[in-house]
DNA sequence: GGATAAAAATGACTTTGGTCACAATGTTTC
DNA sequence: GAAACATTGTGACCAAAGTCATTTTTATCC
């Protein structure tokens, strides 16, 4: 049983690359292609496909809007979003609209293929990096997700202070709970703010929450 | 490269069945087995594994608690939860604790295997039925909370100030962007803090972020 | 029309936060 | 052993945040 795929991607070179990767798996067949969301929608009117692979950034109509419309017209059609690491902001909205998966363009080909199989057999697939960024947003509580960036630039002590700031603690409370003087806590915070290029504890707290440190 | 698996499941018959399925894929090797969470943890101390397949319902220590502990001890170890359709209540908590996937025991063997591959290559996999039940729950949480609780108690003006605080803006910046005096902004914030039972702008910012106001 | 409440403002005041300079100690690294 | 860095601390200082009392205007509700 072959899987009929609609590939939506504006850059012809990337599109061809993806097509080659997909058709390494003999089950997959790219039977339609489109360069933007509007084109994709009109293609779907005339052709039956099993799966849509959709780029996020495109002219005319982007992947977010296109996914929304496709899903409202064909709720059972599988849609997988192709994205770059920077585009994860959109992930939230698109999942809401019913996308079945989120894959990074930079993935290994095998990873891409196995994820597609997983979606076809009825799953929702999020790639690790995206899931890591998304889950805190959805779950709003500490998962594991210690950011690489943060840990590179901050020391153990600083990290534990950041967490407490992210819980809304005052310097006095932090000092008490870590058995430090208030002055020391202040010094640490000054250093942290400089390191992370933030202005005050409020921005630091926001940073901590958004990065799932709390 | 073989994948070393720890299989945690209390019923011997089911465990053997799963083992047979898993080892149909020559990459997979069940090298350790455990009948409950406590056993699983002690096995992990002595043996290195790449993946844990964990049943939810078990005597002594259930899969939820076990996953939590395993993930805090070995954050990079992949954990997939095996569940029945009725157990989806737990899914939420366990995802929070960092589980990498959720599979139904009733799945087709191939589905199971492809999902495991997907998790190993860095994904988060939710099976359709579970995702369908879970997503609304997750999406509702962060979005709806805002309208119900907060908007009941805060005025328009106050709400717009809360958002700016949630972006890390200072009183001066808020005053400028809303064309108010600094004193007015301070007054508003005092009222907001009282209304929401918070202490300072940092706690307010955290509140705003966690409730998806930013 | 009077009551109620949001919105805006001012001034005086206290507390907290953040910066800076400087210092002491211990650990790790080369 | 010197250099680099993490950690802790002090004291002085200024800026920002937050509280409180009080006032004015405007709009809405009964």
TrEMBL record, chains A, B:
Residues 4-120 form the Response regulatory domain. Keywords: DNA-binding, Phosphoprotein, Transcription, Transcription regulation. InterPro entries: CheY-like_superfamily, NreC/VraR/RcsB-like_REC, Sig_transdc_resp-reg_C-effctor, Sig_transdc_resp-reg_receiver, Tscrpt_reg_LuxR_C, WalR-like. CDD domains: LuxR_C_like, REC_NarL-like. GO terms for biological process: phosphorelay signal transduction system; regulation of DNA-templated transcription. The modification 4-aspartylphosphate is found at residue 55. The keyword Transcription regulation applies. One of its GO terms (molecular function) is DNA binding. Residues 147-212 form the HTH luxR-type domain. SMART domains: HTH_LUXR (SM00421), REC (SM00448). The keyword Transcription applies. Transmembrane segments: none annotated. It comes from the Bacteria. Gene3D superfamilies: 3.40.50.2300. PANTHER family: TRANSCRIPTIONAL REGULATORY PROTEIN LNRK, TWO-COMPONENT RESPONSE REGULATOR. This is LuxR family transcriptional regulator. It comes from Ureibacillus sinduriensis BLB-1 = JCM 15800.
């Amino acid at each position: 049983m072959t899987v009929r795929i609609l590939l939506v991607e504006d850059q012809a070179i990337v599109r061809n690359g993806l097509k080659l990767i997909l058709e390494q798996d003999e089950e997959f067949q790219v039977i339609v292609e489109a360069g933007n969301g509007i084109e994709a929608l009109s293609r779907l009117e005339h052709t039956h496909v099993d799966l849509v692979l959709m780029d996020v950034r495109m002219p005319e109509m982007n992947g977010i809007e296109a996914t929304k419309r496709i899903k409202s017209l064909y709720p059972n059609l599988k849609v997988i979003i192709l994205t770059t690491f920077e585009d994860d902001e959109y992930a939230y909205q698109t999942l809401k609209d019913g996308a079945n998966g989120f894959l990074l363009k930079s993935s290994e080909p095998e990873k891409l293929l196995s994820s597609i199989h997983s979606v076809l057999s009825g799953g929702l697939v999020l790639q690790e990096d995206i899931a890591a960024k998304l889950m805190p947003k959805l779950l709003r509580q500490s998962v594991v997700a210690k950011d690489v960036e943060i840990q590179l630039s901050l020391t153990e002590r600083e990290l534990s202070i950041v967490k407490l700031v992210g819980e809304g603690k005052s310097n006095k409370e932090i000092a008490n709970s870590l058995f430090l003087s208030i002055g020391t806590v202040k010094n640490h915070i000054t250093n942290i703010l400089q390191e992370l290029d933030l202005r005050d504890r409020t921005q630091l707290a926001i940073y901590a929450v958004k990065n799932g440190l709390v």
